[in-house]
Amino acid sequence: MAETFGPTSTTEEVLSGIDLHGKRILVTGVSAGLGVETARSLAAHGAHILGTARDLAKAEVATAQIRRDAGANGGSFELIELDLARLASVRNCADQLLRKGEPLDVIIANAGVMATPFSYTTDHFEMQFGTNHLGHFALVNRIAELLRTGGRLVNLASAGHRFSNVNLDDPNFERTPYDPFLAYGRSKTANILFAVAFDQRYRSRDIRAAAVHPGVIQTELARNMDPAMFKAMMDQLGKQLAAEGKSSFPWKTIPQGAATSIWAAVVAPAREIGGKYCENCHVGQVVPEDIAISPISEGVRAYALDLNAAEALWKKSEEMVGESFSRSYVAR
After folding, report:
1. Which of 184, 202, 277, 329 is catalytic?
2. Which class is domain 11-225+252-320?
């Protein structure tokens, strides 16, 4: 590419000179943090944004700047209700979009939860796997026919995928002792594997999918974490930084955190990011499991990109949500 971006690149830097007029982009989770900035930056460059949120009243307040920036630059913005922890809500949202029949250029599956206490979704899925993966799995597959040729799916994953591979024998922690970060890791690995499987199915229509790690940003995502747990985690990371001769934790700002999603969605060549894990505005490298990596270093574990695992997850996810999407990728 003509310009190289990195960990400190912002959404505005990544989108410099990019005209998105005529593009229609769905962004889930626009009531706070990365979702708001992702939607705002795209709308400010002329895109029409469909933003989803569980709490529409909260989202109306949070998205005021999106509407202002969209109006000033020829873009537009609308809100749609979506609760990823309720399949009934997911299906209702998808049905609304399908009835309108308006095409999409990009879907950015941004919404999610992290390190929640043990609980279940309305449909009795473990909360993090159900919200972060299964809700998006059902939504995206139901509306996939709306993606234009040349479209993209971007799944928000995390370096947290290194906490755990998926466990398809016990996805709801019915036999496994529950740990908030183990569950988070499973869900984030699932986000990556879903992108891998989706990319395999849709590349014949020139539709590609990628997963992205935004970096570590102080947002509402950590709202479920016990303060003592958060302090212990930061203390441990501080020790790792000291051992590596680094003096401070590399927090990202929200515009820096949203930059990789933007880069993968509308800037990077599709063939470069299709079926890949991206971080810091580039494709991440596979790090073998016998090599230790800290939560702040780069790299993706091979199990998160494994094609067989991706297919097994797809099959299990269909079983769990009670729908088959095996024919939805037939070329049109």
Report:
1. 184
2. alpha beta
Does residue 152 contact residue 265 with C-beta atoms inside 8 Å?
A: yes
pLDDT value for 2: 47
Q: How far is CA 179 from CA 33, 118, 134, 157, 213, in A?
A: 25, 8, 19, 18, 21
All residue ranges of the chain with pLDDT < 50 are 1-2, 328-332
178 among known catalytic residues: no
**pTM for this prediction:** 0.92
Tokens, residue 298? 């780069």
- Residue 249: the pLDDT is 62
